[in-house]
Amino acid sequence: MADGQSSSRAATTERVVTDRLTGLALYGIDPVAYFTERAPREGLRDYELPWAGATWRFLNEGNRAAFMRDPAVYEPRFGGYDPIAVGEGNPATGHPSVWSIHEERLYVFHSERNRARFAADPDAAIARADGQWPALLATLVP
User: pLDDT tens digit string along 6-28?
Assistant: First the structure.
């Protein structure tokens, strides 16, 4: 999946970033796999779960069950929006291939540049995003 394709297909008014053509969160990537496989892995249609206005896909039943037990652990922070952009008050969609786990939470980024900015001081980036998120969230469709 090319980055250009992702951004043009992303819904930027939803609370959870979804592919507007398929309704899939993370473009069909299994959110649990970032933690278990330490890599993005495409989920399967056989293991889908509707949650938070999107359809989530998983590699297997165990990953789907883990997500069902505690989605807040596995879903990307800020609904899949780039935390650097969120900190600037901009709902830029993250790409599932540009990601990081910090303190056992998943973050996805719009660009490698933003991931590098995040990596330089993740706690400050998260604090800025946390400060902007409530106002930004109010503008997004539930």
Answer: 444 444 557 899 998 999 999 99
Looking at residue 97, its amino acid is S
Helix, coil or strand: residue 139 = coil
Looking at residue 40, what DSSP letter applies?
A: -
| CA-based nearest residue to 56, from 94, 18, 12, 1 | 18
How many Cβ atoms sit within 10 Å of the Cβ of residue 32?
Answer: 25
Which tokens belong to 117? 């900015």
Cα separation, 115 vs 20, whole angstroms = 24
Q: Give pLDDT, residue 131.
A: 98
Token pair 């998120």 is at which residue?
A: 133
**Residue ranges of domains in the chain:** 3-73, 77-138
Q: pTM of this prediction?
A: 0.89
